[in-house]
Write the structure tokens for this entry.
Amino acid sequence: MKRKAMSRYLMGAALLAMSAVGLGSAPAHAAWPDHNLTMIIPASPGGGFDTYARVLGKALGDVLGVQVLPDNVSGAAGQRGATAAYTARPDGYTFAIFNMPGIVQPVLAGQQVKYDVDKIDWIGSMGFEQYIVVVAKDSPYKTIADLKAAGKKVTFAAYGSSGVAANRILCSEVGLDCQVISGYPGNNDALLGVVRGDAVASVTPITTATSFNTGGDLRGLLLMSDEFVEAFAGTQLASESGYPALANLGLIRAFGLPPGVPADIHDALADAFQKAMVSDEVKQWSASTNSPLQPMGAAQLKTLIAGQTELLTKYKDIIGTEN
Amino acid sequence: MFEAISASFSGLIFSGGILYLCIGTFVGLLFGIIPGLGGPTALALLIPLTFGIDTHSSMFLAGAIMGAVPFGGSVTAILINTPGTAPNAATVFDGYPLARQGKAGLALGASGAASAIGGLLGVLVLFAVLPIARDVILAFAPPEFFMLAVLGLCAIAVSTEGKFLRGLIAAGVGLLIAAIGYDDISGAVRFTYGVDYLWDGVPLVPALIGLFAIAQILSLYVEGGSISEDPGKVKVTRVMDGVKSVFTHYPTLLRGSVIGAVIGAIPGVGGTVAAFLSYSTEVQLSKEPETFGKGNIRGVIAPESSNNAREGGALIPTLAFGIPGSAEMAVFLGMLVLHGLQPGPAVLLDHLDVVTSLMLSLAIASVLASVFCLLVARQLAAITLIDVSYLVPIILSVSLVGAYALNSSMYDVIVTVIFGVIGYLMIRFDYPRLPLVIALFLGGIVEVNFRQSLMISSGDWTTFFTRSISLVLFILIVVSLLLPLVRQVFKRRAARSGKEIKA
Amino acid sequence: MNIRDLAFRFLPALLLLAFTLSFVVTSFDYKADTRAMPLVIAVLTVVLLVLELLAQRRDRIGEVLRRFFTGKSHLPVGTPGKTPSVGREIGAVLWVVAFLVLAILVGFYIAIPVYVFAYLAIYVRKPPLISAITALGIVALLYVLFEVLLSYPIFSGVLFGGYM
């Protein structure tokens, strides 16, 4: 470990010296990768995106034969990390995990951002995390129709801007009169809010709900997905209840390169990415932690991103308004 | 339960657990001592390393780091007036004055012993509360979080160093700074004046490093000399007296530990409140509150015991609900998941042995870190004798790198320097800095939970007084604000009746 | 009553007043519940600052206020303790800022030894050898900690392509 780091340093120092005297410009990428890769994670350590990225990074490093060093660039709801990745040197040595829809939302809200989502050079995705509507286990509501029939304002607990947006999109798609209670410091906190009665329901990522619910405190009301989930057996699907569009919504754990990376390097990385995704290490982790994996290639990922952007654009005004 | 404990012990002794425990303790101490670095950074950097080792050993490593960081942070708080980690901010109140009086050894001894025993007591509380953890956690909702944070804000009253008006002004400004950035409730962005960086608000730890470490450098530079006012007077041999003082002040120790463990166990308030709260409780219960802030040893024991006890408490919501009770717990949570342990009520049933390993290492590391540091306390205390010319560049480079490492952001470093200048100006113009710090810490929590409470109750103000725990906390707030006033009145009366009685 | 004394007594509160008033003004750009809390705090702080300004006056009101808030009616002239020279203070800040700029430009691993050596050898006139050892010692320590033990990249300077 120490020796490896040492040789990396010597190489780094040599590169530094080279670039300092202006020799570093020659793109000798024939032997990519000849040193460690940097993976930008636009979140602080410990969260979902960080965990996924680190697991992938390790497996990817094994495939490529170099280390993939995670670099957490958190802040500004992921925008700082996205900007860092987008403006990184396009030499194939820096890539990032991007938070979809996190990076599109500010654009739709009319904010100035320093990246262009369409120009990100996608290499693939680890998963597409869809949402579920949950209530407390002793709640009188059993279906989304019950909520509608309640005839009063329904409270929803939400975390973060993506969470608030997801809750609002559900309410307007279904036609619920709802009040979103925002400000929780995490998804689990919002779910705890549902359990202790702060709010009636919450729209939350399915995996979050599954892991939170090992004690059986929650009940599923509506799966915003096309597939059933074992942990919430018996919960209606979005299409069954007549809201198929809701299945388009979700967090995409997408990986990409800054624009301008040579095509051969892009292909080599995308290839290694697919290999890493099916490595035993990643599979084992996924199985033992109940973290869903849906390996996706660049083309498939692009289609998914387009579909989601469409849905978000439809609800642009709802997303943009303040709570 | 006993099976799990014995499994943990055998893991500790026979499968190399003790090695990881020692490494973790050392890393924790080091990261605690360097301003800016702390438990969250240490754990985040070590996560990839734990891939290669089994779950028990990683728990020993993580537990040791979390157990050792708080004490490491107190070392810098006492010696150079710079809290090594955020929760140590309360320790500078009395720790640094002691160092200036040449009693750095005494303060370090007290801090070490208080940390060790506080850590042990915290783990005991954790064991005791585990069966009812669920009910405890569910009993606290936004109205209670709000009241707890306000109770923490009351610490401002005892931190103004006799400059009450200016203390309140500093607190007001601190609350305003805390309001900068993304508003969690409405999703609006406030007071950023077009600067993207400010979206996340003014980062706390860099501001803290600036207000203390950089401001300290500037004033050391201007004053020259050494930290200890009279180098000839320094007695670094008084470490054992410090250790003893913890036992003579055992009520302080117990109060600090219980406050730490309980606040730690309540998710959503954050551990820093615990240290401030136990400090202000101590001042308010004291018969001679005016001696605090001038080097009262109880002012070191209270926050330090609560800091270490807090880690034990913070494990409860982390394990039972996956809700981190402190910043390091948030990172630790990620590590648990990486090792295939999904936090939730099931962890306590399915993986009790892992939990006991963790508790064991928390407890042992608290003691180990203290013992280790007490052995070198003499050398550490000698820092206060060093020629300031050398200290200035060393502290400056280390703390700025620390500020950078926190988030890999040079903007954080710029914030650090700006707050350094602000901190120096506050020293120079005689404004107390601690009210500003307390307000920065608690401003966000107070506002979010206040507004959340009102949203949940549909705008009904009585929600703060109709819930029993919230009401009790409110009464505590009133009492803690009135107590000093009542005491003052009595004292004035006493002074008037017998003029020879000294305050 | 000289200018320095006046500045010492009134300038901090006036600056803070300007800062706080800017919050009051800006908060009107936001919706009612978004601005409520900051606005209330800002207004309270303005009141406190006005009291502070009054308390600094050398008249009856000032004396009453001082006695109420601090228990002392005496108003010292100048800084408590020895008054450091303003030039020395500005120098101190400039050294820190210079180090910051250097670190931003060329990164910490170059800025630290340069700054520490310059500061020790040139500014406070310590023996060059000891200065050099201190400078290299600090950077070696940080380097071993971050790069070797933790594989944690530290900022390398905008000139060398580092991301702020």
